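Field log, afternoon session.

UNIT: design team B
ACTIVITY: writing a sequence onto a fixed backbone
BACKBONE:
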């Protein structure tokens, strides 16, 4: 009987497995081996997991499966992106993650599908006080070790900043398409390679003595950090979730400008210069503009075009706030307890 995903199954990515599923995804057998039914394994792991959003095995496996679409790591052959077995496993994991997200983000009253009303609802949703503020902690209390860890967590997304949302561009038309292209153009430097936001963030990492190569710290971050990236990748790569990626981007931009001002102030308080703070200072002004475009023209415009997507637009926004809130809470609680927020401690350079 032919299995859905036969040995060897590994992707050539230099990470340490976190369980049987990520081991199957990452590690090809060293020699002759029975076929590995990774589809059945994925189904079993998802069934047994208490929470797929914070399950290390699920999140690392999903992260690596998405890597085949992003050209993140040179060891992944281009044809692996659409390998039927890999895609089948990915869909099992996506189903579990999406179900968990929809369960955790309780429904709220949705507005009429009008641009202004949708934007107002999103601004109200994102302005709600949900607890302790990571950005204020970094502005006032964080140590150099804390901010190094903060950059390590954020590197999983920010060294690829804007890419997950860009999957939505060919899935949109008219006003929403023009809106997301306007936002993404700024994220990619407006035609100036040195102004690409991911490149500016890489300079921030180097300013703290960190490795700015993509994936350098994936082994060090917990599942919830990976979940922030895998969630937006899932939204962006699945056309059925185009409403969710629009809502995610709107919430992402609406919760960026003020926190980035605090982050920049925190790095200045610790004695870092413009080479480190430039990334955050850039986002204070840029995202104050982006939040209006993403809220009104992207999310609101999409709701006017396709009222049937309004529920998913709100879902995407709430999922963004929920998962990013969990990641921030993890960092805050770790530091306030006097321990590292990383899976393996990365020390501060002298």
């Amino acid at each position: 009987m032919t299995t859905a995903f036969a040995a060897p199954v590994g992707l050539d990515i230099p990470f340490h497995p976190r369980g049987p599923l990520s081991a199957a995804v990452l590690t090809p057998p060293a020699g002759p081996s029975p076929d590995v039914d990774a589809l059945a394994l994925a189904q079993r792991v998802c069934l047994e997991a208490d929470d797929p959003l914070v399950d290390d095995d699920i999140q690392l496996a999903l992260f690596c499966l998405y890597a085949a679409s992003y050209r993140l790591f040179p060891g992944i052959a281009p044809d692996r992106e659409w390998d039927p077995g890999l895609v089948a496993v990915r869909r099992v994991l996506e189903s579990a993650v999406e179900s968990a997200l929809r369960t955790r983000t309780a429904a709220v009253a949705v507005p009429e599908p009008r641009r202004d009303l949708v934007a107002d609802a999103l601004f109200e949703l994102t302005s709600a006080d949900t607890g302790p503020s990571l950005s204020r902690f970094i502005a006032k209390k964080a140590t150099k070790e804390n901010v190094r860890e903060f950059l390590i967590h954020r590197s999983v997304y920010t060294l690829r900043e804007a890419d997950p949302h860009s999957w939505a561009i060919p899935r949109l038309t008219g006003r929403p398409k023009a809106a997301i292209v306007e936002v993404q153009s700024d994220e990619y430097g407006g035609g100036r390679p040195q102004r690409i936001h991911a490149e500016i963030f890489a300079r921030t990492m180097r300013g703290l003595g960190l490795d700015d190569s993509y994936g350098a710290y994936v082994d060090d971050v917990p599942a919830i950090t990976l979940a922030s990236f895998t969630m937006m990748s899932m939204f962006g790569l699945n056309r059925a979730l185009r409403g969710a990626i629009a809502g995610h981007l709107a919430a992402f931009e609406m919760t960026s400008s003020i926190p980035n001002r605090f982050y920049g102030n925190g790095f200045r308080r610790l004695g870092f210069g413009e080479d480190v703070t430039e990334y955050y200072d850039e986002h204070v002004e840029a995202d104050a503009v982006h939040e209006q475009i993403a809220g009104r023209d992207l999310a609101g415009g999409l709701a006017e075009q396709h009222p049937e997507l309004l529920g998913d637009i709100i879902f995407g926004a709430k999922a963004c706030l929920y998962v990013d809130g969990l990641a921030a809470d993890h960092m805050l609680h770790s530091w306030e307890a006097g321990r590292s927020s990383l899976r393996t401690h990365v020390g501060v350079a002298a």
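LOG NOTE: Confidence is low (pLDDT under 50) at residues 1-8, 29-34.
NEXT ACTIVITY: expression trials, pending approval
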